[in-house]
Design goal:
The structure is a single chain. By secondary structure, the chain is mostly helical. The protein has one domain (about 25-170): dinb family like domain (Four Helix Bundle (Hemerythrin (Met), subunit A)). The chain is built from seven helices and two strands. The protein has helices at about 1-20, 20-25, 30-50, 65-85, 100-120, 125-130, 140-165; strands at about 130-135, 135-140. Strands 1-2 form a two-stranded antiparallel ribbon. α3 packs antiparallel against α5 and α4 (about 65-85) runs parallel beside α5 (about 100-120). It is globular.
């Protein structure tokens, strides 16, 4: 039933998109790019804000550490974006799990977001509607991109809590300099 509803939603979304006049449809991918950059700013800023000695912090024994969450998001989302980018054999989700140094983790995060930016750079609205296969199921490219963005935002919420539990103010909550 769950998968049937998803197919109905995707069909209705595609049918609705197809009914939109071309002038109104301009910029669909531009919004994807804006959301991608928003996720980049949040994740990179929080990775930069946490000192190395807090990378293995976890609030309870049952959950991932700060570092493990970042590497989980980076590995999984990079694999998804490789699918969107047409890589025949996307890398393993766990490809970054061995990283421990803050600089190496930050480098992997930046490279992941750079790759996604490259994939989105020349994508047209029509290409975004094209189908790719992820986890043995077809999905429009834009859906896979939005899942990567949503996944980043979901775990960003976890990371904000980790910072707060360590007496730190997340970058997105810091006062902004006067303009």
């Amino acid at each position: 039933m769950k998968h049937g509803m998803r197919k109905v939603f995707l069909f209705l979304a595609a049918a609705g998109w197809a009914a939109v006049p071309a002038s109104a449809a301009e910029g669909f991918v531009e919004e994807l790019k804006a959301q991608w950059e928003s996720s980049r700013r949040q994740i990179v800023a929080i990775v930069e804000a946490v000192p190395q000695d807090k990378y293995d912090y976890k609030p309870t024994p049952e959950v991932r550490t700060f570092r493990e969450i970042i590497l989980h998001v980076t590995g999984e989302n990079l694999s998804w974006m490789e699918v969107v980018g047409g890589v025949p054999q996307p890398g393993e989700y766990t490809r970054f799990d061995h990283l421990t140094a803050r600089e190496d983790v930050l480098k992997a995060v930046v490279e992941y977001f750079d790759y996604g930016t490259k994939v989105l750079a020349d994508m047209t609205d029509q290409e975004a509607m094209g189908t790719v296969t992820r986890r043995n199921r077809p999905a429009p490219r834009w859906v896979v991109v939005m899942q990567a963005i949503g996944h980043s935002k979901e775990h960003y919420g976890n990371l904000v809590t980790y910072l707060r539990l360590n007496g730190m103010v997340p970058p997105s909550s810091q006062p902004r300099p006067p303009q």
